Each structure stands twice: as structure tokens, then as C-alpha cells.
Amino acid sequence: MKYSIETHDLVKIYDNGFKAVDNLNLFIEDKTIGGILGPNGAGKTTTIKMLTCLIQKTSGDAKVAGFDVSTNPDDVRSRIGMVPQQISLYKDLTVRENVELCADFYNVDQRIKDKKIDDLLDLVNISYAQDKYVNQLSGGMQQKTSVVASLIHNPEILFLDEPTVGLDPTTKRVLWDLMLELNDEGKSIILCSHDMYEVDKICDSINIIDSGKVVANNTPQGLKDQLLKTKEETNKNIRSMILKLEEEGTKGNEEKINHLRASLTDENEKVTVMVSNITDEMVEAVRDLEVVTDAKHVGNGRLNIDLKRSETSVNHVITAILSNGGNIASIKTNDPTLEDVFVAITAKQRTEIKNGRN
Ligand SMILES: Nc1ncnc2c1ncn2[C@@H]1O[C@H](COP(=O)(O)OP(=O)(O)OP(=O)(O)O)[C@@H](O)[C@H]1O
Ligand SMILES: [Mg+2]
């Protein structure tokens, strides 16, 4: 498999002795959008800075577009674009002058330079402000200028470090569409973000970094499925421990059993079904199901149901509604979100560090 990013035991120790990146093994497939998530201080920006040759690694290896960042930094630099977390534009130059400076830095052909700048400014709707000085721009306008500057030399790989922080919802969408469009054209995108919706929406894969290491890696859906599976397995183990204690029947076990019961998580699933021709009989039929712990018609055909989680629970609900002549317009389950995954994984990491297992 070809990777846009490939690191082997990459380490960064800053001059003050702090290890910000700790034997990082990060692989992002070529021509995909790879998301990097992690708590504040996890080492994301430090990693991006090493990959974009802004700072030097302490040890390990890193390749970008197949080139080693230490031995072939010029090959790396010519193939990458970077939208940094801290915008680095010249404040006393105009938008256009900033982009022109970047174009000259990368030796963009003078014959196509002006047209290229026009096209990119248009692409992110910032042409109207091209003669404004950067220090007169809003945060979002600066961010758009930074994106244009990063794309001027048609890079193979685009790094974006929290590019949509503070942007309004419409401007965010402009940037998301742009990332998807660039990816369709065959570019690899590396996106650091704390916006779970954004990452879920546009990334093909996600690496969660914590304390300078990769602690999870999967597709967005894969991460959510993994969380559900882990929870189900944990609950299964807890239930079998409870059963064992109950069978033992030893005095004093009640406290342990209650403690274990309290640690069962998300045993129930909440499902919302919209039924266009809902009747009391349908609600009753759903409520009577063995797998249903509660069902309420909350108006406008919206049926809120609490279910015991199992592979077939939702099937039973659908069958009960259909067999009573119901028309199901939509079903929504409360499956885990990427935010749930993030919180669960980083909390687990905290506990392991506290217990000295990391
Ligand atoms: N120049 C530096 N010298 C010493 N320590 C640094 C330096 N730059 C960053 N650090 C430390 O390295 C760690 C990782 O910082 P980094 O900026 O890579 O985190 P991050 O994952 O990008 O966080 P955020 O989500 O807040 O942007 C932090 O503890 C930070 O204080
Ligand atoms: Mg950062």
C-alpha cells in the first residue's frame, strides 16, 4: 500500500526535555483524507511540524509522499501545502500580495501565476478582499487566504491544522467542499481537528493521538462500531460476574453485585420511529414487546422507544408496527458518535497512565 504519511517510532523531545511525540507510528493511505484527533497537547501540531519539515525529529523515521523528511526535505517541501494552526501571513501585505509571495517562493510559472491566483481566490470566495491588508481581515478571511497560499503550487499533500476553528457554518462548508474536491482530484489531505462533525463528515480514516502516540486508528464508522463492541463485551463480562456471585449466594455479595450492576453501561438503546399513521394500538403493541422497556408517542407520529440492546431488538419493533398497519417514515437510533469514541478512548488512556500501564 502507498502512504502519503508513514512514520516509524517517530520521537520529538523539545529543548526543555519534554517528549511531545513518543514513538509515533502513523500511516495514512495515499490520496485519502486522513483525520488526526487528540486532546490539547497530544502532539498533533508537533507531528505536523516534523512532517512539514518545520522542526527536526529527535529520532525515528518519517516519510511524506514517499520522501524522508530528514534526508530529502526539499522533495517533501515541494510536494506539500500547509495551513498552520497559527496563521502565518504577512499582516502588512494585502491578500493578493501574500499569495503572490508564496507563488514566487515556490517558483510558480509567471505565465500562469495571475490566473491561478484569480481561480483560487474565487474558489474560496475571497476575491472581493484581495486588495485588503491582512490586518484588516476577519479571522475567517485570514483562514481562507492561508488556504489559497497553501494551494498555489498545486501540492500533492495538503496539511490543515484546525483550519475551521472560529469559522461560521457557511464558511466551514466552503472549506469542507474544497477539501473533498481536492481529494477527488487525487490529492491527499491531512486534517487535524477538534470538530468531530467535520472529521466524521469528510475523513476516510482517523488516527487518535494521545500523549504523543497513536491510540486508535480506523474509519469513522469503524471506530464507532469498535466502541459498541467493546461496551457489549464489557457488559457481557459484568453480567456473567453478577450471575456467578448470585449463584454463590454468599452473604455480603449484594454490595459487590450492586456495584457491578451500576457499572453496566448503555445496556439500553434509544430508538425514535416516525410513523405517519400512528394509533394507540401500535404504541401498545410496541410497549408489549419483551425487548421494549418503554415506548411513548410524543406527538406528530414520533414514537420514542427504550430497548434492550440486541441484534434483533429493532426488528421486533419494526414488525410490531408493520403488522399493525403502520407506515414507518424514518428510524433513528442513538448509536455512539465520534465524540463518544474520543471521550472513551482518551479517558481510557488517562486511566492507564494513572495506573502506570503506559
Ligand atoms: N517549542 C516547544 N517547547 C517545549 N514544549 C513544547 C513546544 N511546543 C509544544 N510543546 C509541548 O508539546 C506538547 C504537544 O504540543 P502540540 O502543540 O503538538 O499539541 P496539539 O496536539 O497540537 O494540541 P492542540 O490540540 O492544543 O493544538 C504540549 O505539551 C506542548 O506544551
Ligand atoms: Mg495543535
From TrEMBL:
Boundaries of every ABC transporter domain copy: 5-236
One Pfam family, short name: ABC_tran
GO biological process: daunorubicin transport; doxorubicin transport
Record keywords: ATP-binding, Nucleotide-binding, Transport
GO molecular function, one term: ATP binding
SMART domains linked to this entry: AAA
SUPFAM superfamilies on file: P-loop containing nucleoside triphosphate hydrolases
InterPro entries to which the protein is assigned, alphabetical: AAA+_ATPase, ABC_transporter-like_ATP-bd, ABC_transporter_ATP-binding, DrrA, DrrA1/2-like_C, P-loop_NTPase
Entry similarity comment: Belongs to the ABC transporter superfamily. Drug exporter-1 (DrugE1) (TC 3.A.1.105) family.
Name of the protein this chain belongs to: Daunorubicin ABC transporter ATP-binding protein
